[in-house]
Amino acid sequence: MIEALRTQDSGETAITPIATTPPAATPAAAPAAAPGEPSLDLSMLDLAAVEDAVRRAAADEIMPRFRQLAAEDIVEKNGPHDLVTVADRLAEEHLTASLTALLPGSRVVGEEAVHADPRVLEALHGDDPVWIVDPVDGTRQFVHGDPGFCTLVALAHRGEVLASWTYAPALGLMAVARRGAGARLNGVPLQAGSPSAGAILDVATSHYDFTDDEQKRVLATLETGGIAPRPCGSAGLEYLHIARGEIDATAFSWENAWDHAAGLLLVHEAGGASGTVAGQPFRIEGGNALPFTAARDAETARRILGLLAAAN
Fold first, then answer.
1. What is the DSSP letter of 196?
2. If the chain, 312 residues long, is cut into consecutive pieces of 10 residues, what is the mean pLDDT of each piece?
3. CA 51 remoteness from chain centre
4. Distance between CA atoms of 262 and 107, rounded to whole angstroms?
5. In whole angstroms, what is the distance from residue 124 CA to residue 130 CA?
6. Which pairs from 68-74 meet CB under 8 Å and 24+ separation?
7. Looking at residue 170, what DSSP letter applies?
8. Is 269 within 8 Å of 179 (Cβ atoms)?
């Protein structure tokens, strides 16, 4: 069921890289092929300048509004739990301008741009490099003055996520991952490690405010011995928690690329694993079998996916 999980030659467990090929017709997927060479030469790009751009967007548009929002600065998108603020919109505009200037010919798939025009998502299927942007991941936390929010940026090309930046400005955390080159938090290498033998697994799941009855039923299979599920906060920060070895896994039932692209690469480069219930790697273009998991190691991912698949 989760044969797509693989182990690197170094012995570290890693996710299968995001692929553009469609999933197999049956859940008994064959082992995934080894990753090919990156489709975009990152030597063309000043990665430090990207980090600076992320920091500037947060400093200019997000942090001055943290705990300073007026009622008219907050709008519901699809319900009372799905919020957008003036900080989200302005930070995405800031990043769109700065990131495309750093990589001419690139395009941006941002959460707020997609909300305004779903056709923006078509860029994920094209040949141009794509910046995937969530300007404020954890908007609900941001609105309530909770520092547990972050800005997520990932660079992808032809379905491969090549680099990512996870920045929590209120917490002073900047995590950077580069495909095949590891992950760092504030300049220090990250290693997810493995849970201790017999330890209860701490698993962040899709928040019940954002799940339907069927999704709740499937996620409820994690309410069993040896697992302690809890609703997630900012998805980006949950991925960072895995990369730091602070929690053991996630189980998510939605697939927006801006929520997951940066974090999945971060977990992969910290030695972690991921997979969907169909035994396929998560695809940023969508069409994934859900739920899916990211975990500190392959064994933990297998355990979570086994429970989730049993509900189908």
1. P
2. 33 34 30 45 90 98 97 82 90 98 97 96 97 97 97 97 98 97 98 96 92 94 96 97 98 97 98 95 96 97 96 82
3. 17
4. 16
5. 7
6. 69/143, 74/143
7. T
8. yes
